[in-house]
Amino acid sequence: MGMLPVQSVPKIDGDIACAVSTKVDGDIACAVSTKVDKGIDSAGHAKKYKGIASAGRPKVDGGVASAVCTQVDGITNSVPAGELDKDHICCRYKFGGRLGEGGFGSVRKGIRLKDGLKVAVKYVRKTKRTTYITTAFHPKPLPLEIALAVMVNREPNCQCIIKLLDWQDDPDHYLIVMERLVPSMDMRTFLKCSGGILREQTAQYIMWQIIYAANFCCNRGIFHRDIKLANLIVNPTTLEIKLIDFGCGDLMKDSGYSTYSGTKPYFPPEYHDRGRYHAKPATVFSLGVLLFGMLHGRFPTAKDLHCLGNNRSVFAVSKECILFLWACLQRHPERRILLEQMLYDDCTC
After folding, report:
1. Where is the Protein kinase domain (predicted)?
2. Model confidence at 53, in pLDDT bands (50, 70, 90)?
3. What CATH topology corresponds to 62-179?
């Protein structure tokens, strides 16, 4: 892809009518860092993160839980007086329209009542498969998604990862309150608005931020496991990226993993070949799939992978980009580029 200073934001193709900044603002501070692990605490450090409000909130009873469910999923804007504990999360936010939904529950717009801050509120129904873990920063077991979000948001945090503002763990569900970028859209929508593909320079700038976020997660002891277009929020004006949704994540394990909770097109080949995979090589493969999709508007096929290694002239991207994709999408994990090295490759720096 050639050499691109990370502080310059490329102009966007397609029908996105927005003024693109030529300088990265303060909110993308981590995108101009030259080291991934500088100042990053270890995963088990028992440091309190000041920006997360609900770590010590008590659980509420079943009747209150039902009221919360009604409020979040029914888009009511007020909580009946006397039904909720004054410390409950629903007393601090006003919930609005739906931003997205899935098998887990839904994500809605919200407003923090004390200052009018725009937020996103994720409501997740608990099931028999909901996993709890105990961590150094909280005395009681927490749903895995909440625990991972708190771990990755400990200071110093990463501006390329969505900021956790608040959370509540109730008997039959949990709520996660996150920052909400305005303007913003997910990467799937951004691609559609850009004509289905991105210019190489634009993809390069976006990928650097995603790779930084992936490294940051691993350095915090977290395997995101589902880095894909739908889990990336982009500000179309600045190209600021935020990685979201730790619902498929896990703690880093030296022994690797034998089950996969992410999205099938991003699965690493070794999951099928060997029945086991490891966090960093699997992340590298998924990032290669992601970059290929941004540049070509589709997932790579077996023929594409063959051409990357043997007939590179069929791809309308630079030699550096082709070599980078080939290094990410190697079938054997031992042959892939290291996750840490991706930040300094000619294709991304």
Report:
1. 93-348
2. low
3. Phosphorylase Kinase; domain 1 (3.30.200)
